[in-house]
Amino acid sequence: MAWSRANTVTREIWETLLESPKIDTHEHLLPQETFADSADILFSILSKSYLPWILFGARDLHRIAWDRDSLYQAMRKIPASAFRKYLERAFSFLYGFSGDLLKEEDRRVLAGKIRQAYAEKDLVAEWLQGRLRIEKVVLDRYWVVNDYTLPGDFFAPVLRIDPYLYGFSAQARDHDDQTPYAPGEEKGKEITTLEEYLALIDRRFQEGLTHGIVALKCATAYDRGLDFPEVPREKARIALEKEDGTESPEEILDFQNFVFHYFLQKAERSNLPVQIHTGPGKSFRGAPYRLGPIFERYHSLKIALLHGGFPWVGEPGAMAHFYPNLYLDLTWLPLLSPTFSDLALSEWLEVTGGSRIMVGGDSWNVEGSVGAFLFSLDSLARTLGGMVEKGYLSKNDAQTIGKQILWDNPREFFGPRLKLQNSGFTAG
Ligand SMILES: [Zn+2]
Fold first, then answer.
1. 13 lies in a domain?
2. Would 46 be classed as within a structural domain?
3. Distance from the CA of 221 to the center of ligand 1, in angstroms?
4. pTM assigned to the model
5. What domain range includes position 283?
6. What's the gap in Å between 307 CA and the centre of ligand 1?
7. CA–CA gap between residue 83 and residue 54 (Å, rounded)
């Protein structure tokens, strides 16, 4: 935020939010060495950010060849993109960078500072735990299946269900190229019937609980639409039990819809919350309203809709009126569009009063997480500050709500499985 232009109330709220303890609901953080060991550290950080998504298109990202030169060349065309701005914000906050990313010389200076920081410091401890006061990060490692080896208890894992929607065939993969199968538990060998497949899910779910998962995570909107009609078991088994490669699109959907409900039923029985990616994705069939029937069916299961369902940010807010088990996760929305983030927050605050709203960083490196959190705090401070200006909220209530969003709401959503050391801020 351009502080010279922000008013005093907004600035004060922002400062309060920065100093407040936080629970980060969603990250994909990679080990520091991933970047520290790369020859071009700045390019490796930019490559693992949302910048390439807007430069080359999320649809084409893994199909086209792009490199350092094409990235910096394409960057010239997008000075107003929030996917560029949040990174500049992070570089300024973390490294005091005020140069121009388009200039080779400025990039060399920035890369030098980054390299030094990566060599000397634990950036997660320094910035996420230290400066941002994040006390727990919910980590979604979508690139591994049934692997919960995390460094220390700062991170809490989730079970990603996407690969299990692709177990109908030994060859099928989700958008992250994942399959549920592993040696000793393979389709066509150990697993040939739907019952054997559900037993695999039962085992994996139990292993997840044993290893401390705090939620199920579903990002299948990158692969398919978010309509999940209930399917009888006899229809669901067809895709799995017939020869690989002969499944019809309808048989695949039957299988996936059944497996999705199977996971949700298990989660409801274990009081395990679910995070669902809504909004951008395959053919833009990820609008939150499509999950209406899911909320009619599951009453006690806590479900967070991520990203505000961008661009349909009004939908989850409206649905929150009807469904008390629906949580609104702002994650990524401030980077997709700060304007839509402010719009979503205004509506959500008026609807939920400040409860059930949460936020995460959704990034692969500390630069991304810091940039995302700064953009989120900006949006929160602007929206809450604006409500104070208009006389809708007292400053005290605005600050209380801000702390609730950063701490109390996610603590309520994930429950005791988060194993928080500090009780932090408590509104009630
Ligand atoms: Zn994510």
1. no
2. yes
3. 12
4. 0.96
5. 134-418
6. 9
7. 7
